[in-house]
Amino acid sequence: MADAAPRLQGLFTQLLGAPLPVRIRAWDGSQSGPPGAPTLVVRNRRALRRLLWKPGELGLARAWVAGDLDIEGDLYATLDLLAGLIWERGDDARTLAQALRDPEVRAAVRGLVKLAGPPLPPAPPREEARSPRRHLHTKRTDRRAISHHYDVGNDFYEIVLGPSMVYSCAYWPAPDSTLEEAQRDKLELVCRKLGLRPGLRLLDVGCGWGSMAIHAAREHGVRVVGVTLSQEQAAYARKRVADAGLTDKVEIRVQDYRDVRDGPYDAISSIGMAEHVGAEQYLEYAADLYDLLKPGGRLLNHQIARRPQGDETTYSVDAFIDSYVFPDGELQPIGATVAQLERAGFEVRDVEAIREHYALTLRRWVERLEADWQRAVQLAGPGRARVWRLYMAASALAFERNRIGVNQVLAVRTRESGTSDLPLRARTWN
């Protein structure tokens, strides 16, 4: 008798303390759950073993990446329905230990073990980063983490990002604008906030595929040094610079920002890079950029932020993101970012929150990935493509629900006299 799905519904209800708001279809063809709801497809018993060996988010992530779990129906709706029951419950050792004190939970775990089959731990998917968290953010570990995320293949990123090749939050003039229009407007906004004009020298930290460097040189006549730790990004960016006829204005380096020693620069852009720095190293990052600026120079720091916690010592990095997307990445509240920039000597002059813009950006990236899914799988492999689809969709929801945000912080290295060189009405950005 095919009864795996109703058994799973009952077991998950016991484990989670509430019924699953989605249907389940199991490997034996059985189905159970609310009619018309999105369907969680459990393709094999191995998915259950992954959950038993790594309860919580990491086990779910491994099952998803390996293809043991799938979703039929609206991906966003499914993630939204499951978020409160699974991803927002917490899966640390203390939470699990408390849950297992409940006799019904222990009984459900025994039932799950019986249904899962041979109790051997499945090997993690090959896409999982295995970076120990003991020595974070050395130059070596940062290179490895950046390579894991960005050296996936430029052709794959072309599918997701489109012609703009900008991998950060766009700035939307309207929700129905094109992705290319919104990314162009974001680059132009950064340039205007930095007050770029011919003859100035710009350092673009974490330059990606060169889009900011090319835009600043072509549209504002500045000389640009772009630095990245990704070999693939650098090669791609250099070709784009050459094709644009800007080799006399733009230099792309494979270099850690901590090794840049040819300042001072008139302006620095750091767009979607500071999330890789880490909380313990953030003051060093801010101080290094401060030292690289001329007096009167401006920094535009564009960075994702998380909501502050009542007890900041309990903050832990998201298991799925850390293992499959941004190894060793860390988010901090916007207040902490502003405070550390000020401790480094900067005067923070403007903070613009553009959270809703990132939700729009991510949904467009997911659309592009899904529209060319088979080619994406051919280029990056099914596991990697599944990672990107899940993380971008889940991130879009996180921005929409105000669980995370993104901010552009404009900071100035003021002159000794205290002069900022900004206009009285700074938001004219000139």
TrEMBL record:
Coiled-coil residues: none
UniProt superkingdom: Bacteria
Disordered, as annotated region: 116-140
Single Gene Ontology MF annotation: methyltransferase activity
Record's keyword terms, sorted: Lipid metabolism, Methyltransferase, S-adenosyl-L-methionine, Transferase
Record's keyword annotation contains S-adenosyl-L-methionine: yes
SUPFAM superfamilies in the record: S-adenosyl-L-methionine-dependent methyltransferases
Keyword Transmembrane attributed: no
Entry EC number(s): 2.1.1.-
Family: Belongs to the CFA/CMAS family.
Protein name: Class I SAM-dependent methyltransferase
